[in-house]
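re the bet — no i am not wrong, look at it urself. input seq straight from the record:
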Amino acid sequence: MPHDHHHHHHHVDPAAGDGRLIGAIAVNLLLTVAQVAGGIVSGSLAMIADALHNFSDAISLVIAAVARRIARRPASAEMPFGYARAEVVAALVNYTTLIVIGVYLVAEAVMRFLEPEPVRGWIVVIIAGVALVVDLVTALLTWSMSKDSVNIRAAFLHNVADALGSVAVIVAGTVILLFGWTWVDPAVTLLIAGYILWMAFAEIGSVIRILMLGSPPDLAPREVIDEVLKVEGVGGLHKAHLWQIDERRAALQAHLVVDEGAWGRADTIKGAVKERMETRFGIHHVVLEMECARHACATPQEWGDG
């Protein structure tokens, strides 16, 4: 998701929130068991849908917690950029899981429309009420951490969707109690599934963009090059690569052409470009291959290795 340029300077205590995550995992696993049992006893597909989503919450939190620990490992010869992308991979797993669950629930709801089954409304309302409280508590536990991590944000959004799902299940159970409209149950299941799919597809793109080494969405590549060209002594920039190392760090690698007569100041020019990239765009990782204007690459392309 887009961030302002200053976001790249923001750091948090990497160990903060581990206890909250563990607590949220335990509560969600207990709730899943209660919801599955309640769904089977009451005959409510919507409650089982909510339970499946809740189980995915617990799994997503487990993945998030493991990824956070891996991400703290320092850089090494084997992993020169460190392990921060573990959190991005975890987010991809979580969103993909949500999509699979959403598709499954749509199929189940359609089958329930074709073959209606009786639903016990009271059990649905009571268990969904408990689920709503747990979902809201879990969301609160992960909310503050979600602002600084795409990984935790994925887990947090699982919980938000689940809280909304619980509200929908409560409404469904109440309607079935008052009017006996059992078709409301698969209808609510479709709503839950639709929201899950919409949320997952809306968020997964930014995660894939990082893994595909795409440029940061909050940086205009053209602006970056134009800023480099403003530095005195710079004659051009080509074979540029602008990408995200992880959610908070961007990198630039390029061939920098130094004007004729300015080669004696090449190191100063390089330093000026790096400083401008850091202060203007928050790009700390800048690798520049210097070229004299007289011996620069012939007809190079601006972006990529061509």
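see?? The first helix runs from residue 18 to 42. told u. also Helices lie at 18-42, 45-71, 86-114, 121-146, 150-179, 184-211, 221-229, 266-281. so pay up
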